[in-house]
Design a protein that fits this description.
Distance between the termini: 40 Å
Radius of gyration: 18 Å
Shape: globular
Order of helices and strands: EEEHEHEHEEEHEHEHH
Structural class: alpha/beta
Helix content: 25-40%
Strand order of the largest sheet: 3-2-1-4-5
Number of strands: 10
Number of domains: 2
CATH architecture of the largest domain: 2-Layer Sandwich
């Protein structure tokens, strides 16, 4: 991985089933710790952060950046994570990097040179959908992140130019493939355990890229979680 900053970067992940933090430095994961989010809280998250920093003889002011998962994901989890990340960044005077959770989820598959289809957050007949591929360290979207009706997911994906060699990942993959069995012929579906894992290590690694946009000072309040509405969804090429 090229184009990284040298200093230590803290990553915070609260968008999925785990609440956790990770330390990334000089191109390597140095520490990572997570707990079940159902037992999580801001205090528990900050305790994880404190333990990781202390184990590497670091204070918050020693960090080069703080990265935080922006979602889509749990409303409460995202609010807890963003509030904690803002507080750390503001108090330490370091930049905050917002990392889209779909990119963090796709990070594990960056070396496959395949289009990755992210399927998450299935609820009330709607699913979060995004597709893209990694080119070096940059995410190139092919279907922009959107919340779409479950019955419309198939047509979105079928239009992808590389249908047949796609990789499907995310906690909603199995449910979507049950609703649209033909999708299994378009690529490989990652199992639920592997696909649902949202790791703080990926957030930290993505926040360490030199190209990542930094929020500082008053801009910290402008960094918001990603909430997607069904009304915003459009099929590729649709008008209106």
């Amino acid at each position: 991985m090229s184009g990284l900053i040298d200093g230590p970067v803290l990553g915070i992940e609260t968008s999925g089933t785990l609440t956790g933090a990770a330390l990334f430095r000089q191109g390597r994961l140095r520490a990572e710790s997570s707990v079940d989010a159902r037992a999580g809280s801001a205090e528990m998250l900050l305790d994880l952060v404190s333990r990781i920093l202390q184990s590497h003889a670091l204070a918050p002011r020693d960090l080069a950046r703080v990265g935080v998962a922006l979602g889509p994901g749990s409303f409460t989890g995202l609010r807890v994570g963003l509030a904690a990340a803002r507080g750390l960044a503001w108090g330490a005077g370091v930049p905050l990097i917002g990392v889209p959770s779909h990119q963090a989820l796709a990070w594990a598959w960056r070396d496959l040179d395949r289009t990755i289809v992210l399927l998450t957050g299935l609820r009330r007949g709607q699913v979060f959908l995004e597709a893209g591929r990694w080119i070096a360290d940059d995410w190139n979207e092919q279907i922009p992140a959107a919340c779409v009706a479950l019955e419309e997911v198939g047509p979105w994906i079928a239009r992808l130019p590389e249908a047949g060699s796609l990789l499907f990942t995310g906690e909603a993959v199995e449910s979507v493939c049950e609703a649209h069995p033909f999708l299994r012929s378009l690529g490989t579906a990652v199992g639920e355990v592997a696909g649902a894992a949202r790791r703080p290590a990926a957030v930290a690694a993505l926040a360490a890229r030199r190209s990542s946009s930094e929020a500082k000072g008053e801009d910290l309040d402008r960094l918001e979680p990603i909430y997607l509405r069904g009304a915003d969804a459009r099929l590729p090429g649709a008008v209106g």
